[in-house]
Each structure stands twice: as structure tokens, then as C-alpha cells.
Write a structure and sequence with these properties.
Shape: elongated
Structural class: alpha/beta
Number of helices: 16
Largest sheet: 7 strands, parallel
Oligomer: single chain
Radius of gyration: 21 Å
Strand content: 15-25%
Helix content: 25-40%
Length: 383
């Protein structure tokens, strides 16, 4: 097939961009002709909470990525839609993650599909239908996008349910688990990873990784490290990721609990070339989220064969079997602390690592492409 993926990609940074690039590569490996259409303007500066939207990493090799979409210019949306229609692709995949993009994506899709004998199929690849931090627009705008799609693929069962709230025609839809992020480097030795990060070679490290936003529950994890049992065991918290908000509540809490010596903050953006160092340096990856659908951090942890602690929210528990590759706990500081104490006291790292190696086989990228293709094949062409 000729496939066009619409969404964020190089030169933009972050897990969503990486996802689209890796998806395109998988489709190419399966023999399809693939392009990615990304943004000239993704977010206006006033709406972006981080330091920069752009990556310093080199462009991905072997992919066709072109910048066309202006997220706030309606005239651009009509033009981009017409350009894509003229390319006459078999399938257009809209990588959707927030309501802010619904007007642009919905308008582009309507232009793509204009015409009586148009055989182009538009599928929404939905990371989040209802965001972690919703507002009134999240109840109004998604429907405009949903009604422009022919079908959907979600990344978790919970997101699939959210789509149904907006899709009243019961369009073809299915879900596939978030595939493994397998391009972040080698599985280097733990001692070597710690050495590269300037950490002591001995000791215990719990990793919190990714952009720091309120719903991700870093405050709960910090409170958990106020537990004297973890302090007595010599367990340290390694935080790796940029603050998307005011860091003061977190740093104040660390100071109040007097745990500055066991909380290590690496709060600049982590380039792709260093991701393997953080994951391989730790003993377990903690995702103490207060709300979630699914998480790319889980899939990075799978690639680097690290046990995980997640909270029982959204789709996280779907991918982390409790007691086999880690723990699923309530989003409460005490429950998080209890699980970490148990992990180190009972020595589960080796056992859970074996479980991760077995479980990760379920998350091949071919599962995602097969699901997208299956949904596309269920769409009836225009007469």
C-alpha cells in the first residue's frame, strides 16, 4: 500500500514522534510505500510547557518526512488535505493524541476523502482520546475528528472505550498494545551505565523517566522515598526528565522530607543517545501515575529488560502482570513504598527480569501494523 502517516515527527522530539517514525519503518520493512507528514507549527510557544519542541538528535535514516501542517491555520488544513488527496494514498493514518489537534486533523481528513469515487481510507491511531488533564475543549473538539475517520486503532482497551463515547456509527475499531521502543541503544552492563552517568557503581536505584507533569505522580514517588525503610536499605531515586511545570513543589517536598541525598535530579531533556544509560543503570522503573492510558516508558523498560512498578490506572496494568515482571499498586505513596521495600527485601530483580524477557515478545511492531491493516480492510469503499 501507499501509506501516509500524519502526526509529529522529526525535527520534533518526544515519544510520539519516535512512535510515528518507528511505525513508518515497520511498514517499510513489510514492503509498503510510506511517508510522514508532520508540522511546520506544532504548538504555539505560549501553549508549550517545555523548553523546546525540537530535538538535537540527527534525523532518522531511511524515512521520508516532510513538514506541511500548521496546527492553527485553517487555510493550511484545506491545502494539506488537497495535497494528500492528489497523492492518492491507499491509507492515511492520523496519529492523534490531544483535542487541540482535532480541528486540523478533522479538516484535513475531510479534504482527503472528498469525491464520489474516493477510495482513500482514513484511520485514527489514537494514543489518548480523553487527555490526562482534560478541559472543556476535550468534550467538544474530539467529535469533529472522530466523525472524519473511517476507523480506529487504539493503544489500549481503555482508549478504545473512550473512542466509543464519540463514535456513534460504530466504525471499525480495534486496539493493539503499545509496541516496544527498541531503537534506544544496546543493553549495556549496569555498572557501565552507572559509570557513564557518574553514579556510584554500588547501591540501589529506582528510575522515574520522562517529562514531569502532574498526572505522572512524581510527588507520590517522592513521598514514598520518605519511608525510612527505603532509606535504611540505601535505595535512591533517579529522576530523569524535563519539568513540564513548576519544579518548586517537588524540590520543596524533597527538602521537607530531608531526602536530598537520595533523590538525584537529572531534569534536562534526555537525548536518545543517553536513554539506555538511565534504564540500564536502575534496578526497577517506577511509573506512579495518577491517570494514564498507556505509556511509552513501559515499552522502553521492556526493551531494556527492566522490572516495573506501575499504578493501577488506565491501561498500565494491562501490560505489567503483577508479581511476574513487577508490581501493580494503588496510586498511593504508602503502597508504592511497600512494593519497593518488598522488591529489595525479597530480592525479586532476577526473577522479574526473566519475566520481562518473556513478556516483551508480545509487543512486536508487526502486531501494530497488522491491527491497522485489519481495521483498514474492514472499511467499505465508496460505491
Amino acid at each position: 500500500m501507499k501509506i501516509i502517516i500524519l502526526g509529529t515527527a522529526y525535527p520534533y522530539r518526544g515519544g510520539l514522534a519516535v512512535f510515528n517514525e518507528r511505525l513508518a519503518l515497520q511498514f517499510q520493512q513489510e514492503g509498503h510505500d510510506v511517508e510522514i507528514c508532520t508540522f511546520t507549527l506544532q504548538y504555539p510557544k505560549m501553549l508549550f510547557p517545555g523548553k523546546t519542541q525540537y530535538t538535537n538528535d540527527p534525523a532518522p535514516q531511511g524515512l521520508t518526512i516532510y513538514r506541511r501542517i500548521n496546527s492553527v491555520n485553517p487555510f493550511n488544513w484545506f491545502r494539506v488535505g488537497r495535497e494528500i488527496r492528489k497523492k492518492n494514498p491507499d491509507l492515511v493514518i492520523f496519529a492523534y493524541w490531544m483535542a487541540f489537534m482535532a480541528p486540523a486533523f478533522g479538516t484535513i481528513a475531510r479534504q482527503v476523502c472528498r469525491g464520489r469515487n474516493n477510495k482513500i481510507r482514513c484511520i485514527g491511531l489514537i494514543h489518548n482520546m480523553i487527555p490526562h488533564e482534560p478541559n472543556i475543549l476535550d468534550k467538544i473538539l474530539p467529535g469533529y475528528f472522530v466523525h472524519a475517520m473511517h476507523g480506529f486503532t487504539a493503544l489500549s482497551q481503555s482508549v478504545l472505550t473512550d473512542i466509543s463515547h464519540f463514535d456513534h456509527k460504530n466504525r471499525p475499531k480495534n486496539w493493539a498494545p503499545h509496541p516496544i521502543y527498541d531503537h534506544y541503544g544496546d543493553l549495556i552492563d549496569k555498572i557501565e551505565a552507572r559509570s557513564r552517568l557518574g553514579l556510584p557503581k554500588e547501591g540501589h536505584y529506582v528510575l522515574f523517566f520522562g517529562f514531569i507533569r502532574g498526572y505522572k505522580g512524581l510527588d507520590l514517588l517522592i513521598d514514598a522515598f520518605g519511608d525510612p525503610r527505603l532509606q535504611d536499605m540505601g535505595v535512591k531515586l533517579l529522576v530523569a526528565g524535563e519539568f513540564y511545570g513548576d519544579p518548586k513543589p517537588y524540590t520543596d517536598r524533597i527538602r521537607q522530607l530531608d531526602i536530598n541525598d537520595i533523590v538525584i535530579l537529572h531534569t534536562d531533556y534526555i537525548p536518545d543517545s543517553k536513554v539506555n544509560q538511565y534504564f540500564r543503570a536502575c534496578d526497577i522503573v517506577a511509573q506512579p501515575y495518577k491517570s494514564a492510558t498507556q505509556s511509552g516508558v513501559t515499552q522502553i523498560a521492556f526493551h531494556f529488560e527492566k522490572p516495573m512498578l506501575v499504578t493501577n490506572v488506565g491501561g498500565l496494568a494491562e501490560t505489567v502482570p503483577d508479581g511476574k515482571i513487577g508490581y501493580v499498586v494503588p496510586p498511593e505513596a504508602q503502597a508504592i513504598a511497600d512494593a519497593l521495600v518488598r522488591y529489595y527485601k525479597e530480592g525479586h530483580e532476577a526473577e522479574f527480569t526473566i519475566g520481562v524477557r518473556e513478556e516483551k515478545k508480545k509487543y512486536a511492531w508487526s502486531v501494530m501494523t497488522d491491527t491497522l491493516t485489519d481495521v483498514a480492510n474492514q472499511i467499505k469503499p465508496k460505491a
